Structure prediction request, 77 residues.
Amino acid sequence: MHFEIIGDIAEIEPIATGPGIRILPFLRKRYGRGRWRKLKGKALVWLADGTIRRAELHWFEAHGLGKRKMRIKRFLD
Prediction:
């Protein structure tokens, strides 16, 4: 699903860190070593069909490498 985030991501909280991340070997191989964390937050997203909805987002992040593999987990409205 293609989407664009509108504004800031709110209520950010960690889900897993380090070895608690199931796809850690994949992240390190594809994007490099780092202190990887899986995070979740809420934001307004603009979907490909032109609608704007509030959604819960999940993504992986490492210092210096930024956000990777961002996806919509569920819609909140």
